[in-house]
Amino acid sequence: MRVGIVGAYSTGYELRSEREAWELLEEAVRGALNSVEKGISGEDIDLVIVSNFSDRFGGILHTVPYALSLLGRTSAKGVRVENACASGGTALYLAWSMARAGLARNVLVVGFEKMSHQPTAAEANEVLMAAGHPEEILAGAPFVSLYAMIAKAYMDRYGATEEDLALVAVKNHENGLRNPLAAMRRKVTVEDVLKSPYVSWPLKLYDSSLISDGAAAVVVSAEPRRFTDAPVYIEGMGLAHDTPGIFERPDITELRAMRFAAEEAFRISGLGVKDVHILEVHDAFTIAELIAYEMLGLAKRGEAAKLLREGIVMFGGEKPVNPSGGLKSKGHPIGATGVGMAAEIFWQLRGEAGSRQVEGAERGLMENHGGTGGTVAVAVFSR
Amino acid sequence: MRVGIVGAYSTGYELRSEREAWELLEEAVRGALNSVEKGISGEDIDLVIVSNFSDRFGGILHTVPYALSLLGRTSAKGVRVENACASGGTALYLAWSMARAGLARNVLVVGFEKMSHQPTAAEANEVLMAAGHPEEILAGAPFVSLYAMIAKAYMDRYGATEEDLALVAVKNHENGLRNPLAAMRRKVTVEDVLKSPYVSWPLKLYDSSLISDGAAAVVVSAEPRRFTDAPVYIEGMGLAHDTPGIFERPDITELRAMRFAAEEAFRISGLGVKDVHILEVHDAFTIAELIAYEMLGLAKRGEAAKLLREGIVMFGGEKPVNPSGGLKSKGHPIGATGVGMAAEIFWQLRGEAGSRQVEGAERGLMENHGGTGGTVAVAVFSR
User: Fold this and answer.
1) In terms of DSSP bridges, do strands B203-204 and A363-370 run parallel, antiparallel, or are they unpaired?
2) Counting CB atoms within 10 angstroms of each CB, which of A163, A167, A180, B299 has the fewest?
3) How close B77 comes to chain A (CA, Å)?
4) What is the CATH number of domain B3-119+210-382?
5) Sign of the CA dihedral A129, A135, A139, A144?
């Protein structure tokens, strides 16, 4: 059973949307249905999966009946899922596996988050911290500090520098300039990043992704050619987990579950990282993108930054990573993020990515993770 | 594929637990695994489904890696689900359907909620309201008011009385006296209920279920005889939805999705309401239990209260409903509720329900709903 994406939509991501969370959700649902070339009705959808992190970001729960009501009266079923920042990837995994197993024919996957529902970044951060290990929560360690410890360990072991981290931010902000959906279209230089204030040493403001608002949706189908002549197939997926706390891991310079999820997606798809032309990876912090290169097999351990210095992962390079601008420039409205990655790859593989189009992109990969890699979803797509 | 429950556990439900949410979760996970007669290890579990309503009730998100860590290092996958008060039933539905389709062999379903995380009932109520239709939230209508409108319409149409509603509370509190897990073991009389203060006319304090804390877990298996000689089979389930808002429905005296979910469960199981010996239904408010009798086919429209007056649904009657004490006496820790219902029926069908044991209980039914019936899960079990 070859399951494919037949429609996709994303709201623009914004730092502070003037709209309510349910309005963002509604725009994404309607947009995804309307994007299906041969037409799809609410009655064709038999499963709705909503991805959302916290009702403290948006004020709404029990969003499945609301999403269903936007489809008109149907006999569809639905569930909202949450796996921290990997909620979207988890939703896609569930849609893909259930469609593949015959539990659903056509699945609407919609993710949303309105993080500006919290008045300040400090308060938003408090919500995010709930995704840590209970002992990390009690210790008061925000994710930027947990990733800072990972970055410190990585720098110590491999001699990586703060400039190496900065190169990720520079690339992704450069890419985001080409993406009208990106929340922060602003060019930054290595110097800008290095001069930005430390949030948790060695991570600075510009090493961190954006607290933002947005929604994205894709339609996953077990009968893709019924709805479009140009589906994007989900050739394989992996979903893997690690300990909730980084203090429980033997080596914090790796994100094991990322490797496990990628191995699973590669095994199922029969494809490898060498076969993909474009990657969207979870750069919640710059260090995470560097480690992703290594976990996904793009670089040897400790050699991630070479890919940036040699231009390989740049737009126009051999393996562009985050041509969308990534979480860094595009934004990271938690529940939407993984779904938005799938939407981006859908557009790229169909040649619909406008000025950020990667030439010759026929296969793509997304990596979406939650917490400090306690949950990772990886998908491999082909047109 | 006949999928069965092979182990179950519930913490005691409490009005205000002294323990943290993750401690309740841990007790339930360990308890369910330890309850499996022939033994089960963390490595046998390939899917974990966590049911939880809001991180405002417990302060934790991304609970899947935490639950997995309690199983020891495994290659299991997991997802947290939320469908308001039907989160537990939805989790069970997903476990059953995925095990049945071969997507998992053994699934740990665990639900928890620590509602006393909010300091007052008013603040807890504000969290609960997020499960309403956006317009109901904006209007400031709590669920007790929405159910009060349903009760008013039902009373107007069928001549039902406040005493009819009170009989539900009296029965369930009487039943709860026999349940050591119940949060409020207190006998109440019809007079007590009628004299309790109105919360939203015609619903009074004693027409309402309890804000409470607790966790419950069940192990669902596609190979039940491997783990116990006395599994409780899930013979069929239904999951159905209705409009998120009651103002969108043609007739608010019925909860349509309850009928649809029951019809689906009956069709799949080949069993009917006549075949079950015990029912656990979602008496979040007394009116909901009366309407459940009618939607499930126990009573004709408008005749629900007869079942109470004639003793049919009483402990010792022909069709005992909520021998556990129901949400009314046992408590309603949102994410745990549906999972706890399945645990109760597991014990009843195995003859392990102690002084609340229903003699001759061989088949049972659970009905768990969210919001004002925007999501309903129904399951039919047999031993």
Assistant:
1) unpaired
2) A180
3) 6
4) 3.40.47.10
5) negative
A82 vs B contacts (CB less than 8 Å): 61-62, 79-82
Interface confidence (ipTM) of the complex: 0.97
In chain B, residues 6-65 whose CB comes closer than 8 Å to chain A:
20, 22, 53-56, 59-62, 64-65
- What integer is the mean pLDDT of B131-138? 93
Does the distance separating the beta carbons of A83 and B239 come in below 8 Å? no
**Considering only residues 239 to 258 of chain A, which have any Cβ-Cβ distance to chain B shorter than 8 Å?**
239-244, 248
Residue of A nearest to B71 (CA): A243
Q: What is the mean pLDDT of chain A?
A: 97
Q: Round to whole Å and give the CA distance between B239 and B257.
A: 8
Contact flag A54-B55 (C-beta cutoff 8 Å): yes
Contacts of residue B83 in chain A, CB cutoff 8 Å?
A: 62, 64, 78-80
Q: Name the residue with tokens 């021998």.
A: B323
CB within 8 Å of A162: residues ≥ 6 apart: A155, A194, A202, A204
**pLDDT at A316 > cutoff 80:** yes
Of 3.40.47.10, 3.60.10.10, 2.50.20.20, 3.50.50.60, the CATH number of A4-119+210-382 is: 3.40.47.10
Q: How far is CA B354 from CA A134, B219, B323, B348, in A?
A: 35, 21, 11, 9
- Tell me: the pLDDT tens digits for B160-169? 999 999 999 9
Burial class (CB within 10 angstroms; exposed 0-12, middle 13-18, buried 19+) of A278: buried
Structure confidence at residue A150 (pLDDT): 98
Å between B279 CA and nearest CA of chain A = 23
Structure tokens at B150: 């349903």
| Residue among B115, B105, B36 at smallest CA distance from B327 | B115
Q: What is the pLDDT of residue A74?
A: 79
Does B142 contact chain A (CB < 8 Å)? no
Look at A77 and B102 and tell me if their CB atoms are within 8 Å: no
In sequence order, which ranges of chain A are alpha helices (DSSP H)? Answer: 21-34, 63-70, 87-100, 121-129, 134-139, 143-158, 162-176, 190-195, 256-269, 286-295, 304-309, 326-329, 334-349
Query: How far is it, in rounded angstroms, from Cα A90 to Cα A335?
Result: 10
8 Å CB contact between A217 and A170: no
Residue of B53, B241, B376 to mutate, testing the A interface (most A Cβ within 10 Å of its Cβ): B241
Known catalytic residues of A are 85, 332
What number of H helices and E strands is found in chain A?
Answer: 13, 11
Its pTM surpasses 0.95: yes
